[in-house]
Amino acid sequence: MNNIKIIVGLGNNIDNQFFGTRHNIGADYVINLSRKFNTKFKKIKKFGGYVSNLTLKNKKIILFLPNSFINNSGKSIFIIANFYKITLQNILVIHDDLDFLPGIIRLKYGGSSGGHNGVKNIIKMFNNTLFYRLRIGIGHPINKMKINNFVLSKPTKIEQKNINFAIKYSIHALLIFIKKNYNQAVTFLHTKK
Q1: pLDDT attached to residue 153
Q2: Catalytic residue status for 190
Q3: Which of 10, 79, 114, 125 is the one with CA 20 to 30 A from 48?
Q4: What's the CA gap between 191 and 116, in Å, rounded?
């Protein structure tokens, strides 16, 4: 059994103006997760974000949405982790990934930011790369110069359909991860058609 204590959904969570955009898929995922288990988020000013709680197999897990732009999300994560004395290795971060097509979701432990500024900020704040990531594919614009506009816009209907399907089965993989272990979750997620 692993020891995940906080699940973080990355996104531009200022005033909800970016919900539904590609860059907000991490936050949208965690909101979906909270709905599945009928939990509500509460804004906690001292943490700089929104907090909800899940209990799975007698294990309490904090769901967290930093109330910041994605590039500055590490600060809020550092504050809540420090308050609850939770190490980075016990945190799962869910975020969008340009390197995968919409509908592809992968689990990863450690490694570089892969160019994701939110992940980069977390690594900088904790001075550590050892944490779990659930990466949700959003695809890549043809023109690399248009990445900012691309991530801040909404997926097409077909992309959204693929993403929604992937989120559904990856929530099952996440539950395998929490209740059993990382390797079984990776096997399930990475071999699912």
Answers
A1: 83
A2: no
A3: 114
A4: 25
Residue tagged 């732009």 (tokens): 69
Burial of 58 (0-12, 13-18, 19+ CB in 10 A): exposed
69 neighbors 12 (Cβ within 8 angstroms): yes
Single out the residue of 30, 44, 46, 49 nearest to residue 93, CA to CA.
30
Render pLDDT for 151-190 as a digit per residue (tens, 0 to 9): 888 888 999 899 888 888 889 899 999 888 899 999 998 8
- Which class for 189: exposed (0-12), middle (13-18), buried (19 or more C-beta within 10 A)? buried
* pLDDT value for 190: 83
Phi/psi-derived region of residue 142, left when phi > 0, alpha when psi is between -120 and 50, beta in every other case: alpha
CATH superfamily of 6-191: Peptidyl-tRNA hydrolase (3.40.50.1470)
DSSP label of 64: E
Q: Which of the residues 23, 116, 140, 172 is marked catalytic?
A: 23
